[in-house]
Amino acid sequence: MRLSRTCALLAGVSTLLALPAALAAERVQVVTSFSILADMIENVGGEHVEVTALVGPDSDAHVYSPRPADARALAEADLVVFNGLQFEGWIERLIDASDFTGPLVVATDGIESRLAAAENAGHDDHDDHDDHDDHDDHDDHDDHDDHDDHDDGHDHGDIDPHTWQDLGMGELYVANILAGLIEADPDNSAAYQARAERYREEVAAVDSEVRELLGEIPAGTSVITGHDSFGHFARAYGLTFLSPQGLSTEAEPSAANMARLIDVIREENVQALFHENMTSPAMIDQLAEEAGLPIAGTLYADALASEGEASSWLGMMRHNARTLHDALAEPGHDEGGDAHDHEH
């Protein structure tokens, strides 16, 4: 009798231990290109998805080199999601190499037409930032023109692919992810739809918070970051972003570009510079030293943080807005800069 009870207990323990593996096997296996998309998918998919990001937190998707294990991960996936707009120059070759045949989601589907409509309408969606048209003209001349020799080799096309930097584009990201999850797992479509609706509400709320914070920064303020990844953020929230590198981090900026940017820093009365979490700080440190300006904090552009507030997309956007506000809002430029200096 005692032996049979022991066997039954052991069988029960084995069943309990097997449950997590069984539950994981029942989840939709989603492979995505980088950490920001992974967070979006987890928010829409919840407990029904198991998400793998090929490029993890604090890592640079621009310079990523896929491994054989990545092709195997795609081959075993139920759903593959990537940003598109040629952000991941390596992803389509990897998909072809993997022989993946399941649903494929380009998270930015529909964004090109949304951007074209905004351009044709004179950016009516951002009436609160009427001064921004001047910023765009300045960016196109001083920043993008300086980087023509970089952009041609990076296959980003004519559109800045960093569209997640505008929370107003979140609706399209969520809609595309939702459609992909429902295609891969129609049995849980109601759960996905409910989570997507809640997530849309959270995105809209954070968008309002970001606009309120950045609305306290003086019009015409220029911001210096490592590479040209904040164009959509600038258009949405009314700032000017300049950088020594172009849309990609692959190529080092020329000495001439660095010299021109130092001139612009002085002409534009730039108050502070910012590191990016997934790029080398060396260029920004050099600019700060030569221009005599503080490093006012770290911004998150193409990757989430490994931990802390910026380890989610919405947390990242809050962090960026607060960091910019603390450094640049009036009064207190100096206090904002000093408050962040100790972190670096």
From TrEMBL:
It comes from the Bacteria. One of its GO terms (biological process) is metal ion transport. It is found in: Cell envelope. The keyword Metal-binding applies. Residues 127-149 have a biased composition (Acidic residues). Its main location: other. InterPro entries: AdhesinB, Bact_metal-bind_prot9, Lipoprotein_PsaA-like, ZnuA-like. GO terms for cellular component: cell envelope. Residues 119-162 are annotated as: Disordered. Keywords: Coiled coil, Lipoprotein, Metal-binding, Signal, Transport. One of its GO terms (molecular function) is metal ion binding. Pfam families: ZnuA. Residues 1-24 form the signal peptide. Residues 150-162 have a biased composition (Basic and acidic residues). Residues 189-216 form a coiled coil. PANTHER family: HIGH-AFFINITY ZINC UPTAKE SYSTEM PROTEIN ZNUA-RELATED, METAL-BINDING PROTEIN HI_0362-RELATED. Belongs to the bacterial solute-binding protein 9 family. This is Manganese ABC transporter substrate-binding lipoprotein. It comes from Halomonas lysinitropha. The lineage of its organism: Bacteria, Pseudomonadati, Pseudomonadota, Gammaproteobacteria, Oceanospirillales.
